[in-house]
């Protein structure tokens, strides 16, 4: 598979989750192990551009996949716009959930820009992109829990990053 734009070949037990492969075999500790049951979102990564809970994915099933972790979002020491928005809006407290929140936000922005509806989308079949209102952001980010309760700032950070992406035509 490709991890953070680098080819990666691993010899793993077939029961190894992507989360454990990332953390224990590759040293990519940005992705966090929270509940290990797919309920908290701390382990969210992007697989072929889609957000997924890495604790629920078997690494061997991702042969040929492109995986992006929070470490792979920045380039040349320049933060991804979502990472920068989280800093600008102080969208974290303890920071444990932050990598999963950021990866989920990147995925949510992409989904909305592609016209994927959520349970909060006003129309059943939107034409073009879905506007990321506060309700949309809260719904789309609902799979990522923050025990510290930084949700207000997380929503503000995602809204700013989504607006910047829209203006940049991404």
TrEMBL record:
Keywords: Iron, Metal-binding, Oxidoreductase. Residues 1-73 form the 2Fe-2S ferredoxin-type domain. It holds the Pfam family Fer2_2. It comes from the Bacteria. Signal peptide: none annotated. This is 2Fe-2S iron-sulfur cluster-binding protein.
């Amino acid at each position: 598979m490709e991890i953070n734009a680098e080819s990666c070949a691993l010899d793993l037990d077939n029961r190894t989750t992507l989360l454990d492969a990332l953390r224990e075999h590759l040293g990519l500790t940005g992705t966090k192990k929270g509940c290990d049951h797919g309920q908290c979102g701390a382990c969210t990564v992007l697989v072929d551009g889609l957000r997924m809970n890495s604790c629920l994915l078997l690494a061997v099933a991702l042969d040929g996949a492109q995986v992006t972790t929070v470490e792979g979002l920045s380039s040349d020491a320049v933060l991804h716009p979502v990472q920068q928005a989280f800093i600008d809006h102080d969208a974290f407290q303890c920071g444990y959930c932050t990598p999963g929140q950021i990866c989920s936000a990147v995925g949510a922005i992409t989904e909305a820009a592609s016209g994927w509806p959520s349970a909060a989308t006003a129309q059943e079949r939107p034409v073009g992109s879905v506007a990321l209102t506060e309700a949309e952001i809260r719904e789309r980010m609902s799979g990522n829990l923050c025990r510290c309760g930084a949700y207000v700032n997380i929503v503000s950070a995602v809204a700013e990053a989504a607006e910047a992406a829209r203006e940049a035509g991404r």
